[in-house]
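hey
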């Protein structure tokens, strides 16, 4: 809107309604082409931003030379003291405007995943900062020469004959800044989904080269609707600027608080240095916040309402998901029940591989009991697949899956934890996913047999999953405790090299016969795996829902039965991340009262 409003100076017939209509048209076009990847329009972005900053610097130098170069005295910080001494209230209120002078520039590089840290530092130090300083100094010189009377100092200070080129570049720069802010929102939402703090949404990757270039249709149209409402009903750039100011300062303060927590808990820096850091940075931000909060009646309330709505959605989703997971952990099947059922699980074992998706990292999920009670047969091999998002950008395919046996070896039941980073692509071809998973499972079986041959006290019938243990073994033989590699190479036992002595050889069977038996057992299990693979893979999906008990508090009923249920019903289903055909999908639902 501020870029389009420059038309009012050059074309007197343009009214405020026309500015709003043109801005609405810009927004519709901007969000409509948002799906096009940045790499496809990147050839125009770079030159346009370069021309924009060069024009800012050039216009600033022109105004300094033509009007009043004495504004360079503003670099002397003593004038800040004099300014506050003359009128403290007015000076404090104007700090919000000073903040907006600096914060508009970061929109050009809002989504840092497209650029390296060195490139950002270089561009800001040698292009963005000098051009912004020259631009604002030039506007100040123009205002000094005209006694401060100018409705739009930037467009008013443009040299004669250069209005239209500068107007065009300014509008292109505004569109680019708006687009980068939108892509930054997509990136934040994607990482929030990966951390379980936001409902699952459809994410489209717009580039095959760069993993960070994504598009979220629901968020795109939601942002378009919000922007149109803001422009149509509050067409005052001053009020919108106030809302933007409180958003910027809020982000700065939250970032500083989180950095302080990291300094205390992670880096464990000296408390004196932490207090010094907090005093300087948080103190300055509190001063700026006290300035922008004064405009809460002039538009800042919009951003506060928006923040509360988003926070409410995130809190309800996180609360409901956590409660659902805790309920599943409490109601998981007992290993004693599994042993009583026997290796056939009380039913018929049909050839094939069943991938049962659940959120448990250990134990037998209760939804599996629902499958056993509902189906007349289960697959010869069962794999409990648990997808976990780990706080790293990418997980290599070789480290994607972690396996462990759940029951004795004759049950042929495994647990698989599929790990994804917050920048990994979850949407994979189901055939490629199955191939990688089965190959990793085969490596695990071979590695397990090799390690078992080294153990002098190994017993096939006692290889069950310890419910109090979080230890998992990847195909390479490394032990993990749900994300962090352990120092020990083996599971929970201290491995000893087998020592053959005369006493031991007289009471123990020969080593060759033990090895032969283990080799035969390995061959049988691998043959069963290959036979099951040829029979096909079926995805067993359990819909676990929760509802509040009748004697629960009213607020809990409202949050679980209505808000969380609405979010869960309208979010993207977990199985949608894999392009699984419906003929390979089997679903069973269960409801828990919490």
């Amino acid at each position: 809107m501020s870029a389009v409003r420059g038309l009012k100076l050059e074309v007197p017939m343009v009214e405020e309604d026309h500015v709003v209509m043109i801005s609405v048209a810009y927004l519709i076009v901007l969000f409509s082409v948002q799906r096009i990847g940045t790499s496809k329009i990147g050839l125009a972005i770079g030159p346009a931003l370069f021309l924009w900053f060069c024009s800012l610097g050039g216009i600033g130098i022109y105004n300094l030379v033509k009007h009043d170069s004495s504004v360079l005295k503003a670099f002397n910080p003593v004038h800040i003291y004099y300014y506050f001494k003359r009128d403290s209230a007015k000076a404090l209120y104007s700090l919000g405007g000073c903040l907006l002078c600096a914060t508009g520039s970061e929109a050009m590089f809002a989504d840092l995943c497209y650029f390296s840290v060195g490139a950002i530092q270089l561009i800001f130090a040698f292009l963005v900062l000098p051009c912004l300083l020259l631009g604002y100094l030039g506007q100040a010189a123009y205002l000094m020469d005209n006694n401060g009377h100018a409705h739009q100092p930037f467009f008013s200070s443009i040299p004669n004959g250069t209005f239209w080129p500068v107007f065009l570049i300014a509008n292109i720069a505004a569109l680019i800044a708006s687009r980068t802010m939108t892509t930054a929102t997509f990136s934040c939402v994607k990482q929030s989904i990966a951390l379980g703090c936001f409902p699952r949404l459809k994410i489209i990757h717009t580039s095959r080269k760069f993993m960070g270039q994504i598009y979220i249709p629901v968020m795109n149209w939601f942002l378009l609707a919000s922007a149109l409402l803001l422009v149509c009903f509050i067409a005052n750039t001053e009020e919108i600027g106030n809302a933007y100011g409180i958003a910027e300062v809020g982000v700065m303060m939250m970032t500083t608080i989180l950095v302080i927590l990291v300094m205390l808990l992670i880096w464990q820096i000296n408390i004196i240095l932490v207090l010094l850091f907090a005093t300087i940075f948080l103190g300055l931000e509190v001063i700026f916040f006290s300035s922008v909060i004064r405009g809460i009646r002039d538009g800042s309330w919009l951003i506060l309402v928006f923040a509360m709505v988003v926070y409410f959605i995130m809190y309800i989703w996180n609360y409901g998901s956590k409660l659902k997971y805790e309920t599943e952990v409490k109601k998981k099947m007992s290993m004693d029940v599994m042993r009583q059922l026997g290796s056939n699980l009380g039913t018929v074992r049909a050839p094939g591989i069943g991938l049962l998706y659940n959120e448990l990292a250990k134990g037998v999920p209760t939804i599996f009991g629902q499958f056993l009670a509902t189906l007349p047969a289960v697959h010869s091999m069962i794999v409990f697949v648990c997808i976990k998002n780990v706080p790293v950008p990418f997980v290599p395919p070789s480290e994607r899956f972690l396996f462990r046996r759940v029951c004795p070896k004759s049950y042929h039941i495994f647990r698989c934890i599929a790990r994804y980073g917050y920048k990994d692509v979850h949407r994979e071809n189901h055939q490629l996913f199955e191939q990688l998973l089965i190959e990793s499972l085969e490596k695990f079986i071979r590695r397990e047999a090799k390690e078992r041959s080294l153990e002098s006290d190994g017993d096939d019938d006692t290889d069950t999953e310890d419910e109090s243990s979080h230890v998992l073994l990847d195909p390479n033989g490394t032990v993990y405790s749900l994300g962090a590699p352990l120092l020990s190479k083996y599971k929970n036992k201290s491995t000893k090299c087998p020592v053959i002595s005369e006493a031991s050889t007289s009471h123990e069977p020969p080593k060759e016969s033990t090895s032969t038996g283990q080799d035969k057992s390995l061959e049988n299990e691998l043959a069963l795996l290959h036979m099951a693979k040829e029979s096909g893979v079926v995805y067993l999906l359990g819909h676990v829902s929760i509802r509040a008990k009748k004697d629960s508090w009213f607020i809990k009923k409202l949050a679980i039965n209505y808000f969380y249920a609405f979010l869960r019903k309208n979010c993207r289903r977990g199985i949608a991340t894999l392009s699984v055909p419906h003929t390979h999908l089997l679903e069973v639902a269960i409801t828990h009262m919490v």
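Confidence is low (pLDDT under 50) at residues 458-463, 466-509. The chain has two domains: 4-235, 344-455+470-492+509-550+568-593.
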